Amino acid sequence: MTPQELKSLVRTIPDFPVKGIQFRDITTLIGNGPGFAATVDWLATRVKDSGAQAIAGMEARGFIFGAAVAAQSALPFLPVRKSGKLPCDTIGVDYALEYGSDRLEMDPTSVTAGQRVAMVDDLLATGGTACATAQLLRQAGAVVSHAFFVIDLPDLGGAVKLRECDVEVAALMEFDGD
């Protein structure tokens, strides 16, 4: 499937979660078998070309794509979780949200020093979560130089912010606006 055909599988829901937001809903994309497979193929090709030795996915929709790409690529999958979700000792990073803050955590033993880890997620908006994930992975000893997304919202500046965090960015599709 072409990127344009895949883009047509993403449903836009106006005024969600608040008025003025155009929510890009990937459930219609993952609910289409050939579309989901083509998306995972696109991501897996870029991960392979990046030389990644493991894939990190951010909770929650990054788990969908990241785990699928990791399985297809026969690479380890590293879940980056919200605070309090892991039953082991963790390391974490706090990061700013538009209205408040949040925390990401991971098992530090899931990464080996110098391991090349690519980040995979469904959507890149402001880049806050992705930059925090890169910081957390680096704190664990990973080398993080690439992030791959299904959707980029370039008007929100996430790709620029990630590049400022020394992470190269690629996205299968873009949508203008919020």
Walkthrough of the structure:
This is Adenine phosphoribosyltransferase. InterPro entries: Ade_phspho_trans (IPR005764), PRTase-like (IPR029057), PRTase_dom (IPR000836), UPRTase/APRTase (IPR050054). It catalyses: AMP + diphosphate = 5-phospho-alpha-D-ribose 1-diphosphate + adenine. It comes from Qipengyuania gelatinilytica. It is an enzyme of class 2 (transferase). By secondary structure, this protein is of the alpha/beta class. The chain has a single domain, classed as 3-Layer(aba) Sandwich (Rossmann fold), CATH 3.40.50.2020. About 35% of the residues lie in helices and about 35% in strands. It has helices at about 5, 25-30, 35-50, 60-75, 130-140, 160-165; strands at about 10-15, 20-25, 55-60, 75-80, 90-95, 100-105, 115-125, 145-150, 170-175. The protein has a seven-stranded mixed beta sheet with strand order 5-6-4-3-7-8-9, sandwiched between helices. A two-stranded antiparallel ribbon has the order 1-2. β3 (about 55-60), α4 (about 60-75) and β4 form a beta-alpha-beta unit. α3 (about 35-50) packs across α4. The radius of gyration is 15 Å and the shape is globular. The mean pLDDT is about 95.
